[in-house]
Write a structure and sequence with these properties.
The chain is of the alpha+beta class and 81 residues long. It is built from two helices and two strands; from the N terminus they run H-H-E-E. Strands 1-2 form a two-stranded antiparallel ribbon. The longest helix has 20 residues. The N and C termini lie far apart (38 Å).
Length: 81
């Protein structure tokens, strides 16, 4: 059986507090699941950025108002050829 990669790191007090807040206001039952979901969103955003696409957040009450979400790092562009 192939061994799974494991990632471990220490959280700052501020990040731990925010992690607890996110868990308290969602139906996500575990901290590892919060990180899995966050990683999935990051992957979707990186995939979009690599294809020269933008990601927006839209308020359902004001669909004409969009907030561009920008990654705080560069993403290499996929070759479209």
């Amino acid at each position: 059986m192939k061994r799974r990669e494991r990632v471990a790191f220490n959280l700052t007090n501020a990040i731990e507090k925010e992690l607890n807040r996110v868990q308290d206001v969602t139906d996500i039952s575990s901290k590892p699941e919060i990180f899995r979901q966050a990683f999935r969103l990051l992957c979707l955003h990186v995939d979009a950025a690599s294809r020269k696409r933008e990601v927006y957040m839209v308020d359902p009450d004001q669909p004409d108002k969009k907030l561009l979400i920008v990654l705080p790092f560069s993403v290499l562009q996929k070759d479209e050829s």
